[in-house]
């Protein structure tokens, strides 16, 4: 048992009872003097400076928070909330190397995360707060247990989430140990780029109705997958073109932002795209309902955190989505993926990315592990990963960056590809509770579906540039729609030399 704040109560109880104090409570030195050296004493830390001070104190552990908004403490504002960036920095400050430590000083202080931790937020917050320097040991909750109708079940679910976190940490350590082995064989269809592209081509064959420009007919002879209805909550700037791209790629679009119909739509849609490009209150409310509704039915969810590093508001919106919805795939440029993963190498300039990443594959893999989702880092080279396998795709054209809506449209095609892979490979994401423990990234077959969307879109773009009459951005977009509709499995396979696959 640990008593919160009150030294008097702790002192009146047996020595096995500990004490936890905040920065504004009884001073640590006074508490230690009254309780003695044998008592467990913890201290709250709210930033890296307080963490470094705690590391040099005689406290036994640190409570790091508030990670998220909480009702258990009065007066908590947005400025007080750490979110993942702050939690990671503070946890890292609770450890140091032997070289940095004074003689006889400890190298690490145990720590738990506190503030707004619940079944929805626990795993991503624990993963996000972890870094090569340090990782949290656990978490502390109040309402996540006592406010539930079945506190015993709530505790068991949270304990299972902690077990999942520890399993991932062990997996990470094992992968580091295996990194020196040069003959690490990937499982099929990832054994070679050729096998992977063959799997993607087969998926296109089952998914795509190919348009014949000579007969003006569509060939659906080999199509075995029901047409995917993709709900897209995106910017009004991109809705029109994204819908046309969906149709060209043999999917059906529905562009609805309304929260009032999100639950009903979730019963019919087979993929959901959340794009914060021109986020407003209507779209935000729609996403808040549509995301959890999709999770409840095991529907894949793609998040496009457009410009997430441009303003604190966008970062808040993205974290709100990630805290309430288990997304299946996150798609973004270097600045967007970097912001969510805690890197400052690439900076946001509006919705664009400025700067380069020193190790884009590893950063994308880090985010995949943190969020339990596949990650697609787009750019001159596209990096697709589930945290273990990395797929590089070297296709596309600079013209994609000279027109609006292409990134949003890519998201729609990737979402449709995820659904097709689930159909062909029999992947079931499960309920929201299942996905929190067994997240989407663990289903490797989804990489084939995501690559289908990436590969098809970028190859079509590259071919569109070569169409006679294409002179620039204005003539490029119609040609892109045509080339998407014209894509065949055989066409994809001619680009297999543009793909690399490896483990991280």
Question: Care to describe what's here?
Answer:
- With 504 residues, the chain is α/β, with parallel strands linked by helices.
- It is 43% helix and 15% strand.
- The chain is built from 19 helices and 19 strands.
- Helix 5 (122-128) packs parallel to helix 7 (151-178) and helix 15 crosses helix 17 (446-465).
- The model has no long low-confidence stretch (mean pLDDT 91).
- Strand 14 (347-349) and strand 15 (352-354) form a beta hairpin.
- The protein folds into two domains: 40-178, TIM Barrel; 193-211 and 223-503, UDP-N-acetylmuramoyl-L-alanine:D-glutamate ligase (3-Layer(aba) Sandwich).
- It has a nine-stranded mixed sheet with strand order 10-9-11-12-13-16-17-18-19, sandwiched between helices. It has a six-stranded parallel sheet with strand order 1-2-3-4-5-6.
CATH topology of the largest domain: UDP-N-acetylmuramoyl-L-alanine:D-glutamate ligase
Describe the largest sheet. 9 strands, mixed
Quickly count the helices. 19
Distance between the termini: 42 Å
Query: What is the mean pLDDT?
Result: 91
Into which percent range does the helicity of residues fall? 40-55%
Taking pLDDT < 50 over at least 5 consecutive residues as the criterion, the unreliable ranges are none
Which radius of gyration do the C-alpha atoms yield?
A: 25 Å
Give the neighbour order of strands across the main sheet.
Answer: 10-9-11-12-13-16-17-18-19
Shape type? elongated
Q: Briefly note the structural class of the backbone.
A: alpha/beta
CATH architecture of the largest domain: 3-Layer(aba) Sandwich
